[in-house]
Amino acid sequence: MSRKKIAVNARFLLPGKLEGIGGYSWEVARRLAEKHPEIDFIFLFDRPFDRRFIPSDNVRGVVIPPPARHAWLWWAWFEVSLPIVFRRLKPDAFFSPDGYCSLRAGTPTVMVTHDLAHIHYPGQIPEWARRYYDKWTPRFCRRADRIIAVSDFVKEDIIHQYGIAPDKISVAGNGCRPEFIPLSEAEKQAARQRFADGRPYFFYLGALHPRKNLPGLIRAFDLFKQRTDSPCKLLIGGRFAWQTGEIKKAVEQAAHREDIRFLGYVDNQDLPSLMGGALALTYVSLFEGFGVPILEAMHCDVPVITSNTASMPEVAGNGAVLVDPLSHAEIANAMERIYLQPELRRDLATAGRQQRERFSWDTTADIIWEVIGKVVSDK
Q1: Would residue 263 be called left, alpha or beta, if left means φ above 0 and alpha means ψ between -120 and 50 degrees?
Q2: Rounded to whole angstroms, how far apart are CA atoms 192 and 188?
């Protein structure tokens, strides 16, 4: 009997850029391959790839042009190139972890949907991208044989927005890398010394664009400083995306702007200590399909302040202070409570230890494998 073949969309496996969807793609794809040596996996790249992204002997990489990083190139890759390659390779199933699939290919398809932000915050997405998502995302959801949503919130959103049958959608969240562990007091002090001039700090991690609510966080931090006169800093880790003028304006208007530090992209080597040394993670995004930094903070026993909207309460559970992200006063009050109440910090860390057990990359990979197996057997 010939070995089964699973094709995997590996477009986002790029060196130094395993954030968000790239990180999800890598953690899941490599586990699928390592856990199932009896299966041949074909990782499909849209450009020359790093050999480090071939995790085991049962994986081979195939480069398919064109490099797909714009709307018409997305269409060309998924609707022209993939069907041609699938006719040659004859995979038994196609796993696409980035929210896209091929309408023209007949291969049984499992697709991951991370969020429907383009519907809820259309003005915060470039127009060319939003028009593409508006047209194609509902078609992708209808075409896919099975959908993986990264949270119950996203599942319900897909059902509500596109009328997809609930039994077509499974939920498999994100996980956390093993490097995120609690720090000793000496290690925390070393992190504060290295990143914040020896002072306690609140930490934000993620892309810097409007949906992440950085202007609101900055104004809340300024209010917190006015109320407490504390030595705390606010450290902001992440790349500037687009529409960042409001962020810069908020910093310029902040009375305590000298205590706000932009770190830029934080590499994987520094991130665990930066997270572990924080007084709290301040993740008050307006909308998230999951919110991985919340999980990373809980693995470091770091308290979390996050929004009471979208998926964030689902991910945080009792391990966070939930706030209205549109209320600077609420965010500032949460920062003040965490700064002044060590018992609250302890309680949140304890609750976070319990909550984080709900999510792991191994569990996610196992759920996805079960779904892939079903579409193969249905075929």
Answers
A1: alpha
A2: 6
What digits encode the pLDDT tens for the residues 150-174? Answer: 999 999 999 999 999 999 999 999 9
Per residue in 90-99, pLDDT tens?
Answer: 999 999 999 9
Inter-residue contact 296 to 278 (CB < 8 Å) = no
Helix, strand or coil, per DSSP, at residue 201: strand
φ and ψ of 40, to 5 deg: -95, 125
Residue 139: which of 104, 98, 106 has the closest Cα? 104
pLDDT-derived band at 356 (thresholds 50, 70, 90) equals very high
Token output for 81:
């190139």
Q: Are strands 233-237 and 201-205 parallel, antiparallel or unpaired?
A: parallel
d(CA 196, CA 319): 25
d(CA 260, CA 203): 10
The Cα-based distances of 207 to 9, 141, 211, 242, 325 in angstroms read 23, 26, 9, 10, 17
Angle at which helices 245-253 and 214-228 cross, to 10°:
10
**pTM value > 0.90:** yes
Tell me the torsion sign for CA atoms 286, 238, 134, 288: negative
